UniProtKB/TrEMBL annotation:
The keyword Isomerase does not apply. InterPro entries: ABC-4_Integral_Memb_Prot, ABC3_permease_C, ABC_permease_BceB-typ. It comes from the Bacteria. Keywords: Cell membrane, Membrane, Transmembrane, Transmembrane helix, Transport. This is Antimicrobial peptide ABC transporter permease protein. Residues 59-180 form the ABC3 transporter permease C-terminal domain. The keyword Cell membrane applies. The chain crosses the membrane at residues 17-34, 49-82, 103-128, 148-176, 197-218, 224-255, 284-305, 483-505, 536-558, 570-591. It is found in: Cell membrane. It is a multi-pass membrane protein. Belongs to the ABC-4 integral membrane protein family. The lineage of its organism: Bacteria, Bacillati, Bacillota, Bacilli, Lactobacillales. Its main location: membrane.
Amino acid sequence: MLWKLSLTGIKGRLKDYIVLFSGLVMASAIFYMFESMASNEAFLKSNSIISMVVFVFRFGSVLLGIITFAYILYANSFLMAMRQKDYAMFMMLGAKGRKIAQMIFIETFLVGIVATAVGSLLGIGLASGVNTLLVNQLNLQISHYAAFSPQALVVTVIFFSVLFLIAAIFNARAIAKKSILALLRETSTPAQAKQRPILLLLQTVLGICSLAIGYYMMSDLLKFQLIGIGIALVTIVLGTYLVFRSVIITILGLLKKSDGIALKRLNNFTLSQLSFRIRDYTQMLSMVAMLFALALGALTVGLGFKNQIPIMAKTAAPYDLYLNNAQAVSDEKITALKPTTDVNYTLKESSDSIYFVKEEFDDANLLTSVYDNLSVDVHYTKVSGEQLATDPTQQDQLRQYLLPDQRSKEIKIVDQADFDRLSDPESSLRMIQVKDFQSNYEALHELAQENQTANSSETPDMNFTQRVFVYDTYNGIFSGFEFMGFFLGIAFLTMLASCLMFKILSGANSDIQRYAMLKKIGTRTSLLKGSIRKEIGVLFLVPGILGMIHVLFGLQMFTTLMIDPYHNLWLPFGIFIALYAVYYMVTIWLYTNIVLEPKKK
């Protein structure tokens, strides 16, 4: 009987459970994927570069687990609140509190276990796509990768089973302790009394000052170090809470006092609804703003690390490709690259010296990197033949393109006539640049490998002048951050948007009478829908904006790790806003169906 009632309860709130279910599925899928990456020993041992970021995936799993635990407790409490009248009715009909608690336990645990099973299967599917993602999109060469990891599956199932067991016990005990009257009247509890203006002013000032202190600490972490992170965490959380508790309430009060705004259409009703809700929503909106900042920050930093890989490679290696003994390379492969720069430097090698032609460097200057000011716009220094002939430091820039057994020899820059009189063996060093390194990566990598094979003394593991090898090294280090940031950001977004959705929907039943009364006095449905869009829009927009501000200031922490953390910022922000907007539209649709089209009993 309890199973039947539990299944009936889930069916009755199917839309709400689907939202919760989708969030739990995504969380368990991503958790599995992180675990499968970090626990795949054969994969890690055969890919030494990638194994450097194992801690990234472990950290992602722990952080995701903490947020998932909070999400499950919060989301389930909303669903329980929406069904409290049903439970009260069962108790009025003679059902014992112990049986109600068992029913709630079954509902919570059943949804959780099914979500974990589906999420694990989805995680295996997502993990199988990682190989394609890393190889094709991130240009990593990997082997021994297995999408299915028994260890990751066991960890995922045990972790989420324990989570749902705790959540089920928590929900069951919370409902069982309440009386029938408390269950019936809990959703109709009136808003708190208005705060005194002086207290609001003090909270407003304290909230803004707290945020300012936190932002300042994040702007100079080299100076404040770990103490700065601790202070920033406390002050930003406190400031976020006080902003919603005082600043937003103050702004709403000022808008209500403006006749030009409040008396236009249903604005006064909308502002009153927001004022009524905002005090009860303070903790929720604060949590959503912080999760929003974490999610968007994870996505932004992850993509930021990926964006700086080609910049760092370009800074370290001015040329897209260089070829030793280039006379042995097929010109057809070079022509297919459509190079923007294709320079041949002729050289002759004796037992103790390497000779180059001065005029060739005067006609096509050697490019050298500038490391003193790393930026998105990479600049090179042009070195002439005269500079190479007189400056040993500049000769060292040329020396790095020679083969290892040539680098110990003396470099001599001579005139063409003197060069022609030398009888030593002649070869050439060919320097190539292309219009788009990324699109020509495969061809460039193939030619770099051929150059390495043809010149057996070449050591690619230590080669930081061949751009494709530099790119591979940085890519192996930073691609893990991109991978973690993207999926962790999506997981956090799913949870925070779901929590906010549940909070809004949990108060929808008590709003039915308000909207019904407006309809009875002749208010058009279009105006009511417009009011709903504005009200829910504010509840979504305010924590979103504050979360974005947190991210914009928080990126200052990564200025020492990234060339420009603000580069191409529109991409992660655009992705996030688009996904956030989807949740906003879904919430409007669900809320509208509840308050404007209530089910007839």
